[in-house]
């Protein structure tokens, strides 16, 4: 049984709490490692060491910090297959999906190579008589990143790349369910030239999270996870005077208009709804066909596609469509929600509850389920299932579909499939959701834009990665300077209007 460590000052450091969490292989249900859960004292010690290391790192010019990102990107590419295998082994997603997980994080690292430009301030000369004004972007100090299980590489990279290139130190607390990938990334960025101590990886549960939220040295907290925990972390962090960006759950809808290409829409729905076993905050979990004929045709197109899906372990090769869910508890919850949908009157077109894979009977596999005639009062609509379950809510009109999406308490992502440009433009303009796809199922923006949901999907004023990361991880200092060149007047005791 492997016993994992924390990563402190560039070294693997054994935990001292005596408390551990099991790290499962989701495909077999076996415990493959134990990860230590840090105490408050361990967290505080890691923060104190990071604060010391951050001073020299902040004084390093942005171009040299960007060079670390350049080398880091090279190392990620070098070890892409190793990282993907670690993601698959602990999360359960297929190898192609795991490589995508790493790749989308790598793209943020590549964007951060532009730090010298993105960290430039502003300047105005002669803003008043002999007066110049300029601003500087300076690092916050020590920040924290708390990341979820469903993207073991991508989201840690989203957090650490921007924080570090801006001159901060970071305490990264990855999900205790998938700790290995974060450790590998930490080792690689040290190899790329990051000074030891600037990135610390501390494993833990609520005790370590609360320690980060209450530590006075931590200046900002970045989180991705469930909405209930996002709200908790945002409230506690901001109450302690910290910046916080906390991203929570989702209920993402795809509207299918009568003029849409149904084959393309069905293909997109299957991939977006069942990829990674539905364990994505941007997964499409609700299809909203407009009109009864559209709905009937959509269901007819979906059924054979879903029935052909191959569910299995990542070791079965590239032909697997999705793997197990993360834990036995997650499997039980998903099946329980499918049960509730049946009891509350939804039509279960495809039932994945009894799925079993020979040789992997103890794994956390859930087969794909498809519901039709779901209504907004049902639990399967109201709750984020986070599993391979697609619900169909029929709408009589475009306006009804638009109101359904906009009225949902979550606002992460949404999509519309249509051949009409006017409808698409109207939808993009009016829908009350943070990220919108037009004939595109999972609208995760590229790294030089920014990622963020609205309503109960996001808490905080600034989004993840892109230009917002540089705003979030820096503070602006503005200087007003006057050089006395021929100005002989004495002191002034009142504000003087600038000419």
Quick tags:
16 helices; 6-stranded mixed sheet; 499 residues; globular; 2 domains; Aldehyde Dehydrogenase, Chain A, domain 2; alpha/beta; Aldehyde Dehydrogenase, Chain A, domain 1
Detail the poorly predicted runs. Answer: none
Name of the CATH superfamily of the largest domain = Aldehyde Dehydrogenase, Chain A, domain 1
Total of domains: 2
Which structural class matches the secondary elements?
A: alpha/beta
Strand order of the largest sheet: 15-16-17-14-13-19-20
How many DSSP-defined strands? Answer: 23
Q: What characteristic shape results from the CA principal axes?
A: globular
Q: What is the number of helices?
A: 16
Indicate the percent of residues in helices. Answer: 25-40%
Chain-averaged pLDDT: 95
CATH topology call of the largest domain: Aldehyde Dehydrogenase, Chain A, domain 1
- Biggest sheet: strands, sense, closure? 7 strands, mixed
By CATH reckoning, the class of the largest domain would read Alpha Beta
> What percentage of amino acids are in beta strands?
15-25%
Describe what this molecule looks like in 3D.
This protein has 499 residues and is an alpha/beta fold. The chain has two domains: 2-248 and 457-479, 3-Layer(aba) Sandwich (Aldehyde Dehydrogenase, Chain A, domain 1), CATH 3.40.605; 252-438, Aldehyde Dehydrogenase, Chain A, domain 2, CATH 3.40.309.10. Helix content is 38%, strand content 22%. It is built from 16 helices and 23 strands. It has helices spanning 40-59, 62-78, 80-91, 95-112, 115-118, 154-165, 180-191, 206-214, 227-239, 262-274, 292-307, 328-343, 379-382, 398-407, 421-430, 467-472; strands spanning 2-3, 6-8, 11-13, 20-25, 30-36, 123-128, 131-139, 142-146, 169-173, 199-201, 218-224, 243-247, 252-256, 284-289, 347-350, 369-372, 389-392, 410-411, 413-417, 435-438, 454-455, 458-459, 474-482. A hairpin with a 2-residue loop joins strand 6 and strand 7 (131-139). Helix 2 (62-78) packs antiparallel against helix 4 (95-112). The chain is globular, with a radius of gyration of 25 Å. The mean pLDDT is 95.
């Amino acid at each position: 049984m492997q016993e994992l460590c924390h990563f402190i000052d560039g070294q693997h450091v054994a935990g001292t709490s005596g408390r551990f969490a099991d790290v499962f292989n989701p495909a077999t249900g076996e415990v493959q490692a134990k990860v230590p859960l840090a105490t408050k004292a361990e967290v505080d010690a890691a923060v104190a060491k990071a604060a010391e290391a951050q001073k020299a790192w902040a004084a390093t010019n942005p171009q040299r910090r960007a060079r670390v990102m350049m080398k880091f990107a090279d190392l990620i590419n070098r070890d892409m297959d190793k990282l993907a295998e670690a993601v698959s082994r602990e999360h359960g997603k297929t190898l192609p999906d795991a490589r995508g997980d790493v790749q989308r994080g790598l793209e943020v690292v590549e964007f951060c190579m532009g730090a010298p430009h993105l960290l430039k301030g502003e300047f105005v000369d002669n803003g008043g008589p002999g007066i110049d004004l300029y601003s500087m972007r300076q690092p916050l100090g020590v920040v924290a990143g708390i990341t979820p299980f469903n993207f073991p590489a991508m989201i840690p990279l989203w957090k650490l790349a921007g924080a570090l290139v801006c001159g901060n130190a970071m305490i990264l607390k990855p999900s205790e369910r998938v700790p290995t990938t974060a450790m590998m990334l930490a080792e690689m960025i040290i190899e790329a030239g990051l000074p030891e101590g600037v990135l610390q990886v501390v494993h833990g549960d609520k005790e370590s999270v609360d320690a980060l939220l209450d530590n006075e040295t931590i200046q900002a907290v970045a989180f991705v996870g469930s909405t209930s925990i996002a709200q908790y972390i945002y409230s506690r962090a901001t109450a302690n005077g910290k910046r916080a960006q906390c991203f929570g759950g989702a209920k993402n809808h795809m509207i299918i208009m009568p003029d849409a290409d149904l084959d393309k829409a069905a293909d997109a729905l299957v991939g977006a709804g069942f990829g990674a076993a539905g364990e994505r905050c941007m997964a499409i979990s609700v299809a909203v066909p407009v009109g009864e004929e559209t709905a009937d045709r959509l269901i007819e197109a979906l059924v054979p596609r879903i029935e052909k899906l191959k569910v299995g372990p990542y070791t079965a090769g590239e032909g697997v469509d999705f793997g197990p869910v993360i834990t036995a508890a997650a499997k039980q919850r998903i099946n329980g929600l499918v049960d509730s949908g049946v009891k509350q009157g939804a039509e279960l077109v495809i039932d994945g509850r009894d799925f079993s894979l020979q040789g992997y009977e103890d794994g956390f596999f859930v087969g794909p389920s498809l519901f039709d005639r779901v209504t907004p009062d049902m639990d399967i609509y109201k709750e984020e299932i986070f599993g391979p379950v697609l619900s169909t809510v029929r709408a009589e009109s475009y306006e009804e579909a638009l109101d359904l999406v906009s009225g949902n308490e979550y606002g992460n992502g949404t999509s519309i499939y249509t051949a009409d440009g006017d409808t698409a433009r109207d939808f993009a303009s009016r829908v009350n959701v943070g990220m919108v796809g037009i004939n595109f199922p999972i609208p995760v923006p590229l790294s030089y834009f920014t990622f963020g949901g609205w309503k109960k999907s996001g808490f905080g004023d600034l989004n993840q990665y892109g230009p917002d990361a540089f705003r979030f991880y820096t503070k602006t200092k503005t200087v007003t300077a006057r050089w006395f060149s021929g100005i002989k007047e004495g002191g002034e005791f009142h504000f003087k209007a600038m000419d």
